[in-house]
Amino acid sequence: MNGIRVVEVAAWTYVPVAGAILTEWGADVLKIEHPETGDPQRGLISSGLIPAGGVNHMFELPNRGKRSVALDLKTEEGREVLMRIVATADVFLTNLRPGARRKLRIEVQDVRAHNDKIIYVRGSAAGQRGEESERGGYDMTSFWARSGAADNVSPDELGYAVTMPGPAFGDTLGGLTLAGAISSALFHRERTGEALTVDGSLLALGVWAMGATIAGSHAFGLDRYPKTVPATAANPLVNSYRTADDRSIAIVMLESDRYFPELVRVLGSPELIDDPRFASHALRGQNHLALVEVLAAGFAKKTLAEWRIALKDIDGSWAVVQTPHEVLSDHQVQANDFIADVTDANGTDFKLVSAPVQFNEAPGEVKRAPEHGEHTDQVLEEIGLSMDEIVELKIAGAVL
């Protein structure tokens, strides 16, 4: 993406993550922020969501590698500067709602009046059409709850719907999707000369992620999709089991006729191979409750450390149910550079997950997020403004 310039008028995480990924792929991403407030996610430290004196990782995550340009788009001068920047860009990226875009005059036609070859990208909560197109939303609501995901993973006996696995879970997936769509749009423009308008939403992402379940619900006419807990798994070889030290191991051995003998031997119960209740995949399904019990009893005999050794060389797929902190020391994560070492603007070292694709077997270059308005003067000089003109804009309050 070297030579590709992206203008980003967006805040929070979902859409900015797309810009962050593009920086790892070489793009020059200009983050447009208000001169006084900036991206509201910069203020998370004061709200207690970030450790005092620590790295604002929730801002670094979606803003790595960008250049920050502070413009007041509500002023005529600020908007004119934005459009001069737009004239030099390949992509315009925003998550502002339709009403806000109209008010600021940064709709598709407004931007294309200054650059008819720019790819215009909109990310939203629930899509650009329909009665809710003006409503905002977050991944907890639009991606997780509305898509059916929260309902489907919440055991009925729990009594409440579980929340997402962690902050920005849907946002980061959505940003990756948008980055891929932008890449496709750039390829299309190169081949045809046509600049596309690209739309993504958290609701569409959630529906896509739940695609197999939604299709299955329709195919079987199910109002609620069947739910199981480990004790009632329909296929005991696709399940999780507790160890002697109260950790969990997940196994996915879909070809149970192939993997069942090996698994029970490792569990120390080779006699189960000839048990008439478990002699075939079909019989194991009919007697799944009994099989779950014997497999659970087998896994409960050893600690996690012991199982790491015992399961190390088996053919069937398995994994330790790790904590997020354990992922930092996962040997495969380290061997493949899936997590980068970064230093923020204050000189504090921290860890940041890299974009989950690599080109020519090398990770993307992960750089720190910019300080508020850090690159305003630099970018304005690049588009031809003199320092005297920049000073006048600062005095007028149009730029920082």
Question: How would you characterize the overall build of this protein?
Answer:
The chain has 400 residues and is of the alpha/beta class. It has 2 domains: 5-209 and 336-396, Rossmann fold, CATH 3.40.50; 230-327, formyl-coa transferase, domain 3, CATH 3.30.1540. It contains 18 helices and 11 strands. Strands 3-2-1-4-5-6 form a 6-stranded parallel sheet, sandwiched between helices. It has a 3-stranded antiparallel sheet with strand order 7-8-9, with helices on one face. It has a two-stranded antiparallel sheet with strand order 10-11. A hairpin with a 5-residue loop joins strand 7 (238-242) and strand 8. The chain is elongated. The protein starts with a strand and ends with a helix. The model has no long low-confidence stretch (mean pLDDT 95).
Q: What's the gist of this structure?
A:
It contains 18 helices and eleven strands. The protein has helices at residues 14-24, 57-63, 76-86, 98-104, 108-112, 139-145, 149-153, 169-192, 202-209, 211-220, 256-266, 281-286, 288-299, 304-310, 324-327, 331-335, 376-382, 387-396, and strands spanning 5-9, 28-33, 67-70, 91-94, 119-124, 197-201, 238-242, 248-252, 317-320, 339-343, 349-353.
